[in-house]
Write a structure and sequence with these properties.
There is one protein chain. Helix content is 37%, strand content 20%. It is α+β, with helices and mostly antiparallel strands. It has two domains: 80 residues, Arc Repressor Mutant, subunit A; 40 residues, Ferric-uptake regulator, C-terminal dimerisarion domain (Dna Ligase, domain 1).
Length: 136
């Protein structure tokens, strides 16, 4: 996905094109990894010194809700990344040092749900954390 594709997707949903959204998306296009929210805020405020934390967070959550970004928590802090190109249900290995990810093409819920007979599972999230080969 590129900036124009993402902005077009937002436009189709009735959202306006803004310089802040362009700038946020540009950060993610340049880095294929999870980025802490505080780093995104710092980068955006270099170009837009008056922009509030609320505005940036609102945009990050909008982009996540519209499935342009993915979000996770690392070390108790929200991190975001551009949605990956893997289509369909999948999970990730996330490097705790650099934030890079690797898609996992199977779902562990297949074996876990056997132990939850009678339970109505509505949703799940599964991520594996550790060091990638470059950071190990």
């Amino acid at each position: 996905m590129n900036v124009e594709t993402a902005l077009q997707k937002l436009k189709e949903k009735g959202y306006k094109r803004t310089k802040q959204r362009e700038s946020i998306l540009d950060i993610f296009i340049k880095q294929d990894q999870y980025i802490p929210a505080k780093d995104i805020i710092k980068a955006i405020q270099e170009d837009f010194p008056g922009v509030s934390y609320d505005t940036i967070y609102r945009n990050l959550y909008l982009l996540t809700d519209e499935e342009i970004l993915e979000a996770t928590e690392l070390g108790g802090e929200k991190h975001f990344r551009l949605g990956c190109d893997t289509h369909g249900h999948h999970h990730h290995f996330i490097c705790t040092a650099c934030g890079k990810t690797k898609s996992i093409q199977f779902c562990p819920m297949d074996s876990i749900s056997e132990n939850l007979n009678g339970y109505d599972i509505e949703n799940h999230k599964f991520e594996i954390y550790g060091k990638c080969p470059e950071c190990h």
